[in-house]
Design goal:
By secondary structure, the chain is mainly α. It is built from 13 helices and four strands. It has a four-stranded mixed β-sheet with strand order 1-2-4-3. The longest helix is centred in the C-terminal third of the chain and has 36 residues.
């Protein structure tokens, strides 16, 4: 049985919520403009395409604004939004997220996300990986995920892997390691031990705050969802600039992590991203707890 839904604590007038909805749609359109134009031209981008392929969120979905749980939109009962999944309309015609239904249907997923983000944010960040996960994904391989040449060639790339300690703690990066690179990693990440290994210094864990926000659907306010996208996009640029690929035509000078200077730059940026990702983790967890409060 679903828990009883309480009345939303915040009421937004049509002028207020429609202004937020419009601002969100305009921001989302700006975020996806380059991607949509490239699709029309059948043009690939080795850095930013990842945000729309690995995280398969269509532009129309990204521009859909949600107020989050506990917020009622006045006079929205006769509009399209009222028919969206996970929404409910009260007797006065105000529309709000049906937090009770969502939490009941997605309990396992929501519990996992809350635990993962809370534990990750509580850990001390580790800053000695130097982005070598991308190098381990092409180690001793003639064919690569991206149709972009390796900056140091295959032998040079393999030499960098072999001269460093690989310490990747993120399962969704580790699972793309080449078979030869797997035994070189200090950790053995799995989906089951992800909450125990994930830490805020990991770039991929930072990008994945966006993934978890997506999975929480209408519980996450639209502004927060786009903030997590911005973080994922910014991290992705560093991830590829520090990768073995020659992305200079798109990103300019590489972050050459095989050098002391490149390592220092990588760590400096990595620390800043850890702070940003933890701030967003806290906001996503707050959105979950707001939904739980609505049905408590």
């Amino acid at each position: 049985m679903l828990p009883t839904a309480l009345a939303p604590a915040v009421q937004l007038s049509p002028a207020d919520w429609q202004a937020r909805e419009l601002a969100h749609a305009e921001r989302a359109d700006a975020i996806t403009a380059d991607w949509r134009a490239r699709v029309q031209r059948s043009e690939k981008h080795p850095i930013e395409d990842f945000l729309f392929t690995y995280y398969p969120v269509k532009p129309n979905h990204l521009r859909r604004w949600h107020p989050g749980a506990g917020v009622a939109l006045e006079d929205a009962g006769g509009l399209e939004r009222a028919a969206w999944r996970w929404y409910r309309t009260d007797a006065a015609g105000a529309v709000s997220v049906d937090a009770a239904a969502f939490l009941d249907a997605k309990k396992t997923s929501v519990d996992f996300i809350e635990k993962l983000l809370t534990r990750t944010a509580a850990r001390v960040g580790q800053f000695g990986c130097f982005g070598l996960h991308e190098w381990a994904m092409v180690y001793r391989r003639g064919e690569h995920r991206h149709d972009v040449p390796l900056r140091l060639g295959q032998d040079g790339t393999d030499g960098v892997v072999e001269s460093h300690r690989i310490a990747c703690s993120h399962f969704d990066a580790f699972r793309f390691f080449t078979p030869e690179a797997v035994p070189l990693n200090r950790f053995s990440p799995t989906r089951d031990n992800q909450p125990e290994l994930e830490q805020p210094g990991c770039l991929h864990a930072g990008m994945d705050v966006y993934k978890w926000a997506i999975k929480l659907g209408p519980l996450v306010p639209g502004e927060l969802l786009l903030d997590t996208f911005d973080l994922a996009r910014d991290i992705r640029w560093l991830d590829m600039r520090a990768s073995p690929y020659d992305v200079s035509p798109w990103a300019g000078e590489p972050v050459a992590i095989e050098t002391p200077e490149g390592k220092a730059e990588y760590v400096r940026r990595q620390r800043a991203f850890a702070d940003r990702s933890n701030a967003l983790r806290e906001r996503v967890v707050e959105a979950i707890r707001a939904a739980r409060a609505v049905v408590a």
